[in-house]
Automatic annotation (TrEMBL):
A Pfam family: adh_short
Source taxonomy: Bacteria, Pseudomonadati, Myxococcota, Polyangia, Nannocystales
UniProt key word Oxidoreductase: yes
Protein family according to the UniProt entry: Belongs to the short-chain dehydrogenases/reductases (SDR) family.
Coiled-coil boundaries: none
The keyword DNA damage is annotated on this UniProt entry: no
Name recorded for this polypeptide: SDR family NAD(P)-dependent oxidoreductase
């Protein structure tokens, strides 16, 4: 009987960092499922890597539900690693940019996480791709005080992120204490989410591990040609989250070491 390979799922993986994460996981001996919103590009990328493909639009709850159902069919034993990589960095700053960015980068991660949580195996690791640009000091003191990681619930965090979108749409985000960056604000939410999940799941008998990671500024279509890091280095920083100490309350890493936010 052929030994079961550990199963890894990577979102937003038809190019750039996600694609390289798939490559590095494959080379580590994982059975890799590459997901992408565009089926044609996703299948082509998966075929070139020799991994499997499933369609996923993180902005669509029905798409997440279909993914979960297909994952149950493919391997009833479940997932060993999930890398929530899908995200956007849009030009400009206005109500539409804020809404799209937060929906993809924060709520998209949340949809995937809550969908796959029941599928995670014993000792599974969940890696949320965040960014060091998502610094809490971008927020006013009053807003920072609301990000109390000891008491904040996931619903309250989601309401916090939606308030940013609402305040931008109403033209009052500056007076409310928000920064003028949708990307940075969305990543504050992702890093906070990793901490809340780690706290909430601490008693789960599966001994799950959840971290947020920063790949750094990487030369991809999103990062641009002047970025300081190669995609290989950025992907390695993401996968450094797989080695984070499980009992460490700090849940944000870059290059396998604590990162500040």
């Amino acid at each position: 009987m052929t030994a079961r390979l550990p199963l890894a799922l990577v979102t937003g993986a038809n190019r750039g960092l996600g694609l390289e994460v798939c490559r590095q996981l494959r080379d580590r001996g994982y059975r890799v499922i590459l997901t992408a919103r565009d089926p044609e590009r996703g299948r082509e990328a998966a075929r070139d890597l020799g991994v499997e493909f499933l369609p996923l639009d993180v902005g669509d709850s029905a798409s997440v539900a279909r993914l979960v159902a297909e994952l149950r069919r493919l391997d009833p034993e479940g997932l060993d690693v999930v890398v929530a990589n899908a995200g956007v960095a849009l030009d400009g700053f206005d109500a539409q940019v804020a809404a799209t960015t937060v929906d993809t980068n924060y709520f998209g991660v949340l949809r995937v996480v809550e969908g796959v949580l029941p599928l995670l195996r014993q000792d599974a690791r969940l890696v949320l791709v965040s960014s060091g640009v998502g610094q809490r000091d971008l927020l006013s003191a009053d807003l920072r005080a609301r990000l109390d990681l000891d008491t904040l619930t996931r619903d309250e965090l989601s309401a916090f992120m939606q308030q940013f979108v609402d305040d931008v749409q109403a033209g009052r985000h500056r007076e409310a204490g928000w920064p003028g960056t949708a990307y940075g604000t969305s990543k504050i939410g992702v890093t906070a989410l990793a901490h809340l999940l780690a706290r909430d799941l601490a008693g789960d008998p599966r001994h799950l591990d959840i971290v947020a990671v920063c790949p750094g500024w990487v030369r991809t279509a999103m990062g641009g040609p002047n970025a300081e890091r190669t995609v290989e280095v950025g992907a390695a920083s993401i996968l450094g989250g797989l080695e984070a100490p499980r009992d460490d309350p700090h849940r944000f890493y870059r290059d396998g070491a604590h990162a500040s936010w």
